[in-house]
TrEMBL record:
PANTHER family: CHROMOSOME 16, WHOLE GENOME SHOTGUN SEQUENCE, PRE-RRNA PROCESSING PROTEIN. GO terms for cellular component: fungal-type vacuole membrane. This is Uncharacterized protein. Residues 553-663 form the Tag1-like fourth Ig-like domain. The keyword Zinc-finger does not apply. Keywords: Membrane, Transmembrane, Transmembrane helix. Residues 440-545 form the Tag1 C-terminal domain. It comes from Vermiconidia calcicola. Residues 20-32 have a biased composition (Polar residues). The chain crosses the membrane at residues 62-81. InterPro entries: Ig_Tag1-like_4th, Ig_Tag1-like_5th, Tag1, Tag1_C. SUPFAM superfamilies: LEA14-like. Gene3D superfamilies: 2.60.40.1820.
Amino acid sequence: MSSQQSSLHASERTPLLSGAENSESGSVNQLNGAVDQPNDAASISESLEPTPSKKQKRWPTIIALTILCLAVLIACFGFALPSVIEEYAKEAVVFEPTNLSIDSFASFGVRARVQGTLYLDAKRVSNKATRDLGRFGTWIAREVQSGESEVNVYLPEYDNVLLGTATIPPVKVNIRNQHQNHVDILADLEPGDMDGVRRIVKNFMDHKLNELTVNAVATLPIRSGLIRLPKQTVSQVLQFQGNDVPTVPNAEIQKLRFAEYGMPGHPEGLKAMAVVSAMNDFPFSFDVPALSFEILLPDCYDDYLLFATAKTDVIHILPKQNITASVVGLVQQLPTSLTAACPGTKTSPLDSLVADYLAGKNTTVYIRGGEQEPDAPEWIGKLLHDMTLPFSLPGHPFDNLIKNFTLADVHVSLPDPLTGSRPKLSANVKVLVGLPPEVNVNMDVDRVRADADVFYKGDLLGKLDLSKWQKANATKVDSDLLVQSVVEEAPLEIKDDSVFAKVVQQLLFGKGAALSVRANVDVNTLTALGEFVVRGVPAQGDIFLKPMTGNFKMPEIKGMEVVDTSETSLTLQARVNVTNPTDYSASIPYCNVSMWVNDTRVGYAWMSSINIVPGPNNLVARAAWEVGAVGREWLSQFISGYNTTLTVKSHAESIPNFPDPKLEMTIPTPHMFGHFLRETTMHLLSSTATFVLMSPFAMYINDISASAFYNGSEIGTIDWDYPFAIEAGENVTPRLPVAWGSNALGTIRDALGGTLKLDANADVGVRIGQWQERICRRHPDLITGHCTSLAYKCCGTLYGLPRYCPWHDRIFPRSKFGQLGGHSTGHVSGTNQSIYKVKAATHSNLAYQIKMPAKTKSLNTQLRQKGLEMVQESIDPEFGQVYTISSTKPGITNSDLAYRLYYWGETAKSSASRRKAVEKATNRVNRIKAQEAASKMDSSESASE
């Protein structure tokens, strides 16, 4: 048997496949997708040497069986692994983009450049079996290469609409776990269904894109090494939520300017130039070509009207950087349908845009693609033209739009009581509008109207209705616009009566009233865009109403006359000259106020059809005087020359259909016609007196009870009970009998050729028509009169204006007991008696005698009305009878007696000073006697000569 030698290079432990892996990473070519990675080919080497033995012949059989078994196993894995590898790839694949840019815009779509890192991460696979088999399969395959493929992107939430198609070039990548492949490819993107694109873009612009689901379906031809696998269809669903969903960048208009364009003096329209900036938060980089847009506004029927055209420059978009774009808009002649009011409303489609913009609110306009430049891709123009997107235009708060607001030639027409209308205001309104510096547009205004609210210290005073168009004009003042309008008969509605009363008080007694006006103004404008109405322009300004107290003068009353009488009232009419110190005028159909004296109403005053203008005014007023006890006292003081006052009050119906202004002011009563008594002439021989009276109107004097005093001593009285007529103007009364006092002749004789000072009181009954009243004329001051011969005349002056001689007439009626205002109180403190002493003796040289019983009776009549009486106390041989005034009511002390006694003669003193009074009276009598004796001596000497 022969032996056979064999040399074996392989055994059962020798691997069938052998090779070396030189690298665990690779890269994909940036432009063609070629893989730059070394590869070692796997080879099978075996050396079969013939042997002489039979046992060695079994090895080829074993090897063949082994290869066959491996082939069977590979075939089994070949049917099972693809589905596992697909599942593994879906979960493990990771792509991290580093840059996404648009390389160029083409006629078919967009050529985009995608750069990023692609790798598989086995940790992302949840199923262990899938993870292990996937790692094993990708380790064996090591790298794969895809052919050119298309990726269709669908949106399941939008009826599975095709968003777009991307054409991907061939790509070779290493698919082993955690091996990073740097990808740089150019992909052609072609838009899909335009309706779907518009829907998603609209939701994106409306901020309604809160989540987005994308289904990417790709058919890939794949090969691994020499093995070419059949085309694989890969479907991947991606869901974006929260911060993963892109949002609309906040666009900010940094610069905005308006100007006219066209030939000077013949503008064609309005040009708006703006610079818009926004932040790009995405890794996108591309250049947007110059594009044209149409700016639309909805009309009355929800159709879109062309408002303006806009054009952008080329926009350079860089990743993670702020983007700026220049936009120029052109507005030509506005269509009538854009400026005309919609049916059933008062606003036009343009109104809401302007009103919101001027109010600082965001306004919404609509943008649609316009006619693009010839070099722009057609699909861009079609895409933009088929989409109408809302765009929020930020408002411009015009806080200082109104710089100044003034009213001139103000005329207020108060309501007519017969028509029930409202007060109306007419004025020249001047408004200085501060135009923003970015607005350089010539503008004219020919009409305005408004709905204005008037406030005082923040409280609503009323509403000014300027709903009717008012004529206006506009003038450019530097960079501002002065608008002037003539407001005619604008109704004014008072909303708060208390606020109105405060304003009136400030005008009459304060320092004026500062009012603020807030209005929404409609302006009829004439611009380069044509004539149209801008409605709802907010306006606010301040108005200062000047007070009336600055140059106010007391009214001058003339031409007083009696127009009506009754038993209880007297109606007077007079012309009133009053000066209006303000620049305001008013028309008052009717006005009525009440007159008060010491909180007691004494009458009413009213005027009708009044037109008050700035400066002097001649008005006709009427007053109804309802005289009672208070009114009678006031009239007595007024006629006596006292400084009196009247309080004038408004009431609820002072001005019909107008709130009560709560007016109350006390004014000094003007001395309209001087003193009622001008002159007095006393006739000694006939014991009579005549008076010169000045009366503003005709009347009857029914009776007179008068007394004249010299140094406190009565020198004469008049008691006349027969009526006589007084005409309007100056009158001389009939001769009235005078009862001289005991020392009257001596007093008068001393005044012959000189002057005489007298006090006088009178109680006069007057009648005018049906009206009758008693007036007490009194005055405590002294008068001076010239006395000549046996008759003397007392000439008077009216408050320093000399009439005949430089002295004052003070002969006036004596008041009744109980009236306050005398010199001293004639009573004894702590008792209920007051001593009133009267000299009743007769001076034979004066041939004059006082009848005391008649005087006592007259005085007692007046005293009893006050609960008093005068009782004879004693008879003084020098001075005559002495009387005591006592209370007839028990329990009344002197402090309770509300009266004052005017002294009759110098002996009228209280009982505490009776002795001094007697001494003073005695000295007085002695002086008279000495004067009489000296006079007789002078007469004798003259006769002897």
